[in-house]
Amino acid sequence: MLLELRDVSVNYGPVAALKNLSVKVEEGQIVTIIGSNGAGKTTTLRAMSGMLPVKSGEIHFEGKRVDGMAPHKIVANGIAHVPEGRRIFPDMTVEENLRTGAFLRKDKAAVEHDLRDVYNRFPRLLERRRQRAQTMSGGEQQMLAIGRALMSNPRILLMDEPSMGLAPVIVEEIAVIIEEINARGLSVVLVEQNAVMALELASYAYVLESGNMVLEGPAVDLRDDETVRKAYLGL
Ligand code: ATP
Fold this sequence. Notes:
Blueprint: E1 3-12, E2 15-25, E3 30-34, H1 41-48, E4 56-61, E5 64-65, H2 71-77, E6 79-82, H3 94-100, H4 108-121, H5 123-127, H6 138-150, E7 156-160, H7 168-183, E8 187-192, H8 195-201, E9 204-209, E10 212-218, H9 219-224, H10 226-231
Parallel strand pairs: 3-8, 3-9, 6-7, 7-8
Antiparallel strand pairs: 1-2, 1-4, 4-5, 9-10
């Protein structure tokens, strides 16, 4: 198992946001967590990347316990987070934003190699490398946020609603990018309100409601599940 949450609970003060969550991600898999507003999807990713402390339970990555580890150590171990709303640095150029993703890495040659790799994957970022990030479109900013995460040379990518606020044709483009990244061996945890996209991309899915995991299974099965179809697919 690459990443595993065992009975993880997270609180915001007295309020329980996640209740005894167990999630497993295998090497090379795309796993999705779907759920409506406020279900706890973002909280789950923030716990995985060490930005929120767990109240109880354990998080293991590549056999190592990572809950309680500082966020930068978790990045160095190979977990990269593409946050909700992209969180790029608006006044910095595209290339400066990309380089922040590699700030922990010491091997300069490898960083330059990965930068070229990101530019190969996202030619639009290469064209706009000297442009201030805030002047980019929503889709380009999402690509930048993904590119920046790739610059840390991760084993797993945690993606928080990459489709948010984007036109359907751009959502398609992002979906293809996620598939390509995964095809090159990177595991992905995809959090989405766009359950249609998420269940198409993922091989395994979890459904979160008010901090509880209420359903899980192969994504194809959840696509056919009556409750999921009514509540999340609008069918
Ligand atoms: P969305 O899709 O709307 O982003 P989500 O599934 O990602 O929702 P979370 O953002 O994880 O949900 O929030 C889970 C619950 O925790 C919600 O009830 C939310 O109001 C609460 N919450 C989130 N952040 C905080 C915070 N900083 N302080 C207190 N409560 C919070």
